[in-house]
Write a structure and sequence with these properties.
Distance between the termini: 61 Å
Order of helices and strands: HH
Number of strands: 0
Structural class: mainly alpha
Radius of gyration: 24 Å
Largest sheet: none
């Protein structure tokens, strides 16, 4: 986008800016996942 604007290609720069904004808004952000214990017991530390 900056390269296009520096070359006075303002319409292309605006199009790239819009594409970047669309991608930022469309990218889902996953919440942190819970750690699941499937019934396995932790091994006791050895001495």
């Amino acid at each position: 986008m900056r390269e296009a604007s520096s070359k006075l290609e303002f319409e292309r720069a605006a199009h790239l800016r819009d594409q970047i904004a669309t991608l930022k808004n469309a990218t889902p952000v996953m919440p942190p996942q819970k750690k699941v214990n499937y019934g396995r017991k932790k091994a006791k530390p050895s001495r």
